Amino acid sequence: MPALRGVDLTVKRGEFVAVMGASGSGKSTLMNILGCLDVPTEGTYDLDGERVNGLSRDALADIRNRKIGFVFQGFNLLPRTSAVENVELPLLYDRSRRPRSTRGLALEALARVGLADRAQHLPNELSGGQQQRVAIARALVTRPTLLLADEPTGNLDSRTSLEVMALFQELNQQGLTIVLVTHEPDIARYTHRIVGVRDGRVIRDVPLPERRDAAADLQSSQPVLEE
Amino acid sequence: MRALVLVKVAWQSILRNTLRTLLTVLGIIIGVGAVIVMVAVGLGAKERIHQQIQNLGTNMIVLTAGAATQGGVSQGAQTFNRLTVADAEALRRESTLLAAVSPVIVAPGNVIGGAGNWRTHTQGVATDYQTIRDWPVSSGAFFDATDVRHARKVAVLGATVAKVLFPDQDPVGQEIQIRNVPFQVVGVLTAKGQTAGGSDQDDVVLAPYTTVQTRLAGRQFIPQILAATASPADIPAAMEEIRAIMREQHHLASWEEDDFTVRNQEDLAQAAERTTEVMTVLLAAIASISLLVGGIGIMNIMLVSVTERTREIGIRLAVGAHSRDVMIQFLVESTVLALIGGAIGVGAGFLSARVVARLTGWETVISPPTVVLALAFSAAVGIFFGFYPARKAANLNPIEALRYE
Questions:
Q1: CA distance A221 to chain B (A)
Q2: Measuring CA to CA, how many Å separate A135 from each of A73, A87, A88, A128, B372?
Q3: Residue B261 in 3-state DSSP?
Q4: What is the pTM of this model?
């Protein structure tokens, strides 16, 4: 039985979409296809005006490198590698770019997520929220067409989750297209549009008129006491 | 930039587990070390044989009685001993290429004098013998042509004989008795040491061949004639000339084979060097087996490393690494690992060669080509045994690799 059947989905430039569904619904497969990690057995996928079907393994790798930024539930940072080196990683595999300051671009991306002062820290010296922000900086550093976030708040407490969602909303307002996979309705409420997946089909595709503002929610929530 | 990054990444992951790295490269260390020591010992032996053969006299030609083969069957030298002092004189008279000719008559027996007596060989030779063997005296002088012509009872002592009979004094001018015939010592030879075969060249007494023939040996035939040319280039022609003169001297018809054998020093040297070369190659081959074992160790640890770092590989593939990039990363890592082992192994081999030289007294020679070859070979081992794990890493599916726990 195929994981996805008859899915017809268009994501416009500048959108912020939440893909929702229970485990086994096919949302991971959808995510892998959107991320060019997998190719559909039938049907087509166009990304940024480019037909992705039938491309070789290495050509897919180049598309991932140039057009897609990944953010994972488990952060997926390289251990024993400083934050700035983690952010630099996609630039090292960029074949199109002429040699220029990869370090400078990485520091820039870290500054965008508010971690300029943590550049030399190792992942295990950072909190969960900070690690996820390093991962977001890594996804941003190549200036991708699409940012794919797979349960980005799954490993974070609610306050840190809000911080991450506020960052996503800020980036989206700057023009970044974001597709976010989640099973938490609370998180999905911060996006523009919710796509519901079940048994390999899209069962729901609705815009979200009254979207919430994560930054405002962060302000109104109880401040955490620090010693 | 990319190459530097690759080496840096490899270096970091190697440093991550120092003990494991050391244990992994131990096989390579032992392998490279063993190869270095074996080749050092082999080259040392070759060097020593070369020196010893030089020691015998550079342009020396040896003429022995009896044919090397007769009718296809080896007869052994001296089977039909027909060399005579007359042959030596004919060679000296008729040859144009030989710079020196000397018969060698051997008379074993006790030598009495000074501190006691000593069983040695007395050799009857001509004055040319000193030129042929390139053997200076450390004290006194070699006997001269007049001594030979008049068959005077004078002798020159080898360093060993001199030390045994006259431990505390200069033997020159002293009297010794060879088989109860009194001889006057006129000179002492410098020490030459052992031959390649291990016999003491200094355990000898030299006297004019005329004297030895009439007083000690009394035989008509002599076992050996030594000759030397002025330059090494003349040796082949000189050997032909000796054959022609000797065949005439022995009245051999054209269908008869030589009843003597002519050899030069270079033949002996090459034979001996070939033997040590074969030994060296054999020892190095055995030692390189441990290099292979070391390579398997590297392959093992690289497979473990690929499994441990599946997630890392997944991340790299997800952000745009090609299969080739991952493959090269792991190949660089295994090669750097093997090269570290190789470098430590060269150091260990160097020290071991010194220790071996100290303990056994053998000469050891570390040649730069050996070091370069050993390092190149360990790099090759790293690439060869790193290939399979690297390919395994490169072919991982990024989705599964990212999900790997």
A1: 34
A2: 10, 7, 11, 11, 45
A3: strand
A4: 0.72
**DSSP readout, B325-349?**
HHHHHHHHHHHHHHHHHHHHHHHHH
Residues of B in contact with A78 (CB under 8 A): 312, 315
pLDDT, one tens digit for every residue, chain A (227 residues): 678 888 889 999 999 999 998 888 888 889 999 999 988 888 899 999 889 888 999 999 999 999 999 999 989 999 888 999 999 999 988 887 666 688 899 999 999 999 999 999 999 999 999 999 999 999 999 999 999 999 999 889 989 999 999 999 999 999 999 999 998 898 999 999 999 999 989 999 999 887 888 888 888 876 554 43
Q: Which of B1, B314, B320 is opposite residue A93, by nearest beta carbon?
A: B320
The CA distance from A210 to the nearest CA of chain B, in Å, is 34
As a whole number of angstroms, the distance between CA A151 and CA A38 comes to: 18
Q: What residues contact residue A132 under an 8 Å CB cut-off, 6+ apart?
A: A71, A75, A152, A155, A156, A160, A164
Separation in Å, CA B267 to CA A128, A150, B58, B270, B272:
80, 81, 12, 5, 9
Q: Looking at beta carbons, which residues of chain A come within 8 Å of B316?
A: 89, 93
Q: Are A42 and A55 in contact (CB under 8 A)?
A: no
Residues from chain B contacting residue A94 (CB–CB below 8 Å): 320
d(CA B252, CA B257): 8
Spatial distance between the Cα atoms of B271 and A14, rounded to a whole number of angstroms: 85
Q: Could you tell me which of A140, A90, A91 has the C-alpha nearest to residue A112?
A: A140
Inter-chain touch A94–B322, beta carbons under 8 Å: no
The Cβ of residue B207 has, within 10 Å, a number of other Cβ atoms equal to: 28
Question: What's the rounded Cα separation, in Å, for the pair B114 and B117?
Answer: 8
What is the residue extent of each domain of chain B?
A: 3-52+270-403, 83-249
Write the pLDDT tens digit of every residue in B306-364.
999 999 999 999 999 999 999 999 999 999 999 999 999 999 999 999 998 899 888 88
- Tell me how far the alpha carbon of residue B115 is from its chain's centroid: 38
* CA dihedral over B35, B37, B41, B46, signed as positive or negative: positive
Judged by DSSP in three states, B5 sits in helix
Inter-residue contact A23 to A182 (CB < 8 Å)? no
- Nearest CB among B2, B5, B318 relative to A70 is that of B318
ipTM higher than threshold 0.90: yes
**How many CA within 13 A on the CB side of residue A179?**
25
